[in-house]
Amino acid sequence: MFIVANFLNALAYVLSIVLNIYMWLIIARAILSWVNPDPYNPIVRFLYNITEPVLSYVRRRLPMVYGGLDLSPLVVLLVIVFCNYFVVQTLRDLARTLISAGY
What we know:
Blueprint: H1 2-34, H2 42-61, H3 72-101
Helix pairs in contact: 1-2, 1-3, 2-3
């Protein structure tokens, strides 16, 4: 059963890295929205292509407040932080429990 515990531990580690990378991509996208970036720049296009599906999903369900202020990046960041602390930590605790139970 230690194989399952190691798998869960590795899965938690990889998920944590992926969530942190996506968090920084959302932050970069939000900072780019404050300026007028070149829409044909490959980096800008990459950021928009990788973050727009999630942000548009949240935008459709979140009403606009304060004169059109887009709060979708903030909501997505909160969900990422929640997943990082809840899901990742739960996987780590489950792996630790499996190892200490001696399965």
